[in-house]
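Morning!

This is the sequence you dropped in the shared folder:
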Amino acid sequence: MNKDFADRIKNVEALFHPKSIAVLGANNVKGTVPSDIFENLIKTGFRGVLYPVSPGEKRIGSVKAYKYVLDIEDPVDMAVVVFPSSVMHLALEQCGQKGIKSAIVISAGFREVGGKGIEREKQMLEIAEKYGISFIGPNCLGVINTDPDVMLNASFARQMPEEGEIAFLSQSGALCTAVLDYARAKHIGFSKFVSTGNKAQIGEAELLHYLKDDPKTKVVLLYLEEIRDGEGLMEAARAVIAAGKPVLAIKSGRSEEGAQAASSHTGSLAGSDDICDAAMRQAGIIRCRNIEEMFNRAIAFTYQPLPRGRRVAIVTNAGGPGVLTTDAAVDLGLEIARFEPETTKILKKKLPATANIKNPIDVIGDARADRYDWAVSAVLEDPNVDGVFVILTPQSMTEIESIAQQICEVAEKHDKPIYTSFMGEADVAAGIDILQKHHIPHYILPESMCDAFSATHRFAAEAGKMYEPFAPLEDVDREAAHRILDKAAADGQTWLTEDQATEVLKAYGLPVIETVVAGSPDEAVRAAEQAGFPVVIKIVSDDIIHKSDVGGVALDLESPEAVAEACEAMLGRVKEVQPDAKIKGFLVRRMIPQGEEVILGVKRDPTFGPVVMFGFGGIFVELLKDVSFGVTPVDPATVDRMVTGLKASPLFSGLRGRAPRDMASVTDSIRRLAQLAADCPQVKELDINPLIVLEDGKGSFAADARIIL
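The structure's back. Tokens below.
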């Protein structure tokens, strides 16, 4: 962590706990952003001192106004700046002269509008660096801290949210207002609420590092539209998660654009969203598809204890929803708990004879609060139960509010999580309100309840696991690889010939078979005889990337005559399909035995850096797209996920009598390829396709390699 970054994190403290605030650009025009921000600070009861700065006003409301921030006699901790973007540099310059180290820049008109806006934002950064100012924004909604000792609403949101333990960071200000309204209706509170806007300086990484140690924050939520520093985000998220706080994120923009110009299989398959997904998983971030899913999971983390296992009990007053919940739970990898005999005995004694006392428990449609109390209490006491799902459908005799109140009281007596689903809307509204006020997670659909429990269980199961990337390999020849790559670049090559690519892989200990480049068919015959039959022949040309597309590959050649014929036929096909291609010769190597074909690859992502790919290989790789990704440096857990996470992974362990494959050699190859990607920035994209994986213990071999510079 460099000093500038550390200083910004330190200054974030003043953004959330200022003792004094200057609002630069405040005015008396009701309904405008400057007026609303100043009014919010007053009406929510900010515990510090406010100084409105307004060159044209003597007072803002009943508070004395200052012409310039430099006119304020006392020290100022933080500035909230709402002056027009055209004079922002002047305002920030005065903040620096005043000694203010933290600021929230609300104003728009910067990078988001292009042109002069980009220059204005650059100018802001230069001034901030000059004076050591840390700022949020520009183009943001503002910052909220619900701590009763602070009561900071430095935003133009309509209302102050309830106090809670969830921190919400969003790049979109408009989404912030919608989220605040959504959360208010469900009694969801926040510890911190931040609109990051353009993220010209302070972004998610600095805020995450701060929230890691914030005693008021239990869960962190992120809404991201762009990620500028992928490595910084991953590092910060790991720190927060290591502190026991889950990080949940929505990343918008799942576009596959940008892969269109890729020259390799890896480049075309590794869409930006696939890499983002892999990076978040690798960092421990729980990715969510939408706001509802995010908050469904967030309340489970915030309100209830983490489950100690995945065994759940279901209590319902209707059979159908119980079956639906069972199906959803099993689909998500949860277990339907088997009760101890003592639990079954209690249920049989307390519930009607018509009730189902097996899991899911059906307390029957006429159940009142007492039956729910007996059933939920009994299963919570069962050592085979890690959590309880309570489902209610409104019947004419259902005591909805009493049942809700009873669930709240039972929950207080136990340290196992209880989730609820009161199905319906109007009839169950009062009961839901009781649950939400008492911080019992409620879900409209049982499937959402199961998803939330699954998320909390995975987090609890992985708690304490440290990210420890592989140690650098010592048996690699980085210099040899760089000599080949640098010479190719100096010669104007945009990609390596296969013999060059093979030498680069060989330098990193990747499994290659010795190859010879023959200048003519006769030389190819002699090389084949020396290598030993059967052999593979491939055309060598700087102008041909995909050799198979032009008939430039011949396999399993068993004799000198077959080699000679294949070379002549290859020359004829290439001349017909790509007549301008300059032929250097033929690559000759011994035929690799049959095995399972997989693909390994590298792509240099602009956000997350070098990324390695593993997938089901051969000619169908882009059709099946059964691939996985890992951001370097990779760790053993990531490589294991990459290998076992494919749909085709059962093929590797021996399916229907097939011999198990040597996956240890594949794991080693991924590790070596990741180090090559990190060590060799000259490599833009790389494919090993296929890597032929032999039977367990017999290794694997790269049959074809392609490196784009």
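Headline: The chain is about 40% helix and 20% strand.

More detail when I'm at my desk.
O.
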